[in-house]
Amino acid sequence: MLKTWFVASALTLCALAPLPAGAQGYPAQPVKMIVGFPPGGTTDVIGRMVAQGLTEALGKAVVVDNRAGASGTIGAGQVAKAEPDGLTLLMASSAHGTAPSLYPNLPYQEKDLVPVALMASTPYVFVVHPDTPVTTFAQLIALLKQYPGKYNFASSSPGTGQHLGGEMVKRSAGVDMQHIPYKGTGALMPDFLSGRVQMMFENVAVMTPHIRKGSARALAVSSSKRTPLMPDVPTVAESGLPGFEVLGWFVVFAPAGTPPDVIKLLNSEINKMVQRPAFVQRFAALGAEPIVSTPEHTAAFVKSEQEKWGKVIRDIGLKLE
Question: Domain spanning 123-221: which CATH class is it, in words?
Fold first, then answer.
């Protein structure tokens, strides 16, 4: 959970932090921002927004490079092995908080990456294909109990919030449904819209157009409170699973060893960016809440998420190759 004190203290520290003095001349070349998911998903959209903002702020092109696969770990591995010159960055999603507990052989170690900024969090909405004979989350749980193993749920990749949210529903409600993983939201949407997969957690903004058109039915949101984008849709916690909360989040990383002044400059520019009204409005359209952070707070947050989800993953008994 993103605590209010975290955001408030980060705002205070960032407001007091002096601008870096030793990053003049950076970047001398275009910057590559690697996104570990295919185009079209929330991580990619936010990555492109940040790349555009940094391009304007730094005066050099920041170009998104999609390297999809293995819940973003392929892209993270490439950044971890890149030169620590600030010319290669990683846009990571909350899957980064689960990967260490899911994958026994990651292509990187956490010490190979340094956090730059935590910039946003977003809830998911649990949707079903309109052919599914339920209109509430409670009805869905009853249906799954009546037909164990008959229905399946999609996720954008193993180990993502969408995946673990579904697993938590299974565990908390005592139901059985099959997990169908994809390589990104863009890849799973055709199968969901055709009814080949019946349900899933997905970003609220991604699903809003489909919900409005009637090609998806919203049952509940994964946050602890309702989202302004869907004020009439209850939370999972309200719908029979008290204490349930799963949030997506987005962090920029750089290779370990990147000069501290470059990290400080990037953090400062990202913090300015996410507070601009136009950026806040675009985040809101994604169902995302902007966050101002320091590199130190970001590191502490990522560590806490890895510890929290590590326990959940061990309790559930998940392991990916």
Answer: alpha beta
